[in-house]
Amino acid sequence: LESHTHTTHSDGSLTPPQLVDWAISYGFDILFVTDHNEISGGLAATAYVDEFGLNEEILVIPGVEFTCCRIHMNLVGINQTISPTESFPSDEELISVILRTHELGGIVIVNHLPWSNGPEHDLYDHDHHICAIQRLQNHPTREQLYEWGVDAVESVSEGIIDLDTVIWNAKMGLPLLTSTDLHDSWVTPKAYTILKLEKEIDTNFHPTTNNTATVGPGKHLTQQAVLNRLRRNQNFGNQSQTKSINDQVSSFFYTSVGPKQVIHPVPNPLYDKFYPLTSLDFTYFWSEEKGMYGFNGEFCHEHKFTIHWQRIVWFLVWAIGSWIACEIIYCLLLVVA
């Protein structure tokens, strides 16, 4: 299972069909397509699978990455966009989003806690020191999220193992999920979620739409089976007793290296043609700090715009000095001639 991916319908570089092909190439049986605040990428991916008869190779489940300045969480198994009403939604709004997702038959997965709670390195104070400002400020705690009814919290994201969350998930009876958080074709997965689905597989069902996929000889997997297995009320429940990892509804395979790269982007010759123009970059004269983008048209941190007057002055000094030097050399050449 690959539980977290993006397409060109948000900030990914792969179209929905290309994303499906990427997942098949790296051996995934199940793919969650979770564009930022947009369901269309997931729906396009499922339509591609249906149109080209790929149901026997992969099960695609559409979703949305609910993205704001407080939290990123995947709403999986829904067929409509659910997005924040503001950059910093209230606790009440987050709770209502979780409830609405469950009403639509979906599940809620909280994403990449180490990244979300880490510092936003692009921000500097007046002395040009990096500020230790949290990337997603006022992020709910795991305990709050559990109380609000989320179904899972990512244990591995982009090759980073969140050991604290792995242990917490085992204690609370939540599944162990990994994600690539895929945006680009050259990325290789560092972890695979192994979902235990023996009891949910229908050996007599034949897939006709993307709601099903073949995962083995005569075994057909349904979207509902996957969601039900990951849904919190389907997991073992006594949170006061720590459970064995082997008791989880899922486990994961992790490798720091990843599999051999099987998808290689084709170089664009126009890049070499126009790359020299990038040297005409006058952003050297100013700095603009916005922090984390909230994917709703706003940024999550204070906007700072600084003009570097000293750089402008020295640019003019060097430019005028170079022009004067060229004129002197030209005059000397005329005298010699």
Automatic annotation (TrEMBL):
Gene Ontology molecular function? 5'-3' DNA exonuclease activity; 5'-3' RNA exonuclease activity
Q: Where is the Polymerase/histidinol phosphatase N-terminal domain?
A: 1-70
**Record InterPro entries:** PHP_dom (IPR004013), PHP_domain (IPR052018), Pol/His_phosphatase_N (IPR003141), Pol/histidinol_Pase-like (IPR016195)
Membrane-crossing residue ranges in chain numbering: 312-336
Q: Which Pfam families match?
A: PHP
Q: What UniProt keywords are attached to this protein's entry?
A: Membrane, Transmembrane, Transmembrane helix
PANTHER family attached to this UniProt entry: EXONUCLEASE, POLYMERASE_HISTIDINOL PHOSPHATASE N-TERMINAL DOMAIN-CONTAINING PROTEIN
Its recorded name reads: Polymerase/histidinol phosphatase N-terminal domain-containing protein
